[in-house]
Amino acid sequence: MNLEHLIEEAKQARDKAYVPYSKFAVGAALLTNDGKVYQGCNIENAAYSVANCAERTALFKAYSEGDTSFAALVVTADTNRPVPPCGACRQVISELCPKDMKVILTNLKGDRKELTVEELLPGAFSPEDLNE
Ligand SMILES: O=c1ccn([C@H]2C[C@H](O)[C@@H](CO)O2)c(=O)[nH]1
């Protein structure tokens, strides 16, 4: 699975976004270590606060299917800079993905920013903190 293909999957996911309120469509593509790809889009709701971001949609789809071993995540939107994930998504990514996993942020112009999960949310609150 090359990166160009994973970016294409994220764009395809974005086309499925349900965004009647913000009109801001986001797509994500999550690659598992088995080579499977889970697409995710953002899904909004008339009760605005229950919207689900594209990144979490992809992660929750994979996890709920028993796929829990991840190799890379691409996120894309029609933004001026590579789209930055929100704080809630950073927290979820940080817990469910390896710290050294690559997260590739992109936009429709083709700009890219690649960083690790640790770089996305340095010093994240983690399950270990609950046991201290
Ligand atoms: O990284 C991001 C940032 C925002 N959104 C969604 C949430 C909401 O539906 C819309 C506007 O914030 O974009 C995502 O899906 N991912």
From TrEMBL:
CDD domains: cytidine_deaminase. GO terms for molecular function: cytidine deaminase activity; identical protein binding; zinc ion binding. It holds the Pfam family dCMP_cyt_deam_1. GO terms for biological process: nucleobase-containing small molecule metabolic process; pyrimidine-containing compound metabolic process. InterPro entries: APOBEC/CMP_deaminase_Zn-bd, CMP_dCMP_dom, Cyt/Deoxycyt_deaminase, Cyt_deam_tetra, Cytidine_deaminase-like. The active site is at E55 (proton donor). Belongs to the cytidine and deoxycytidylate deaminase family. This is Cytidine deaminase. It comes from Heyndrickxia shackletonii.
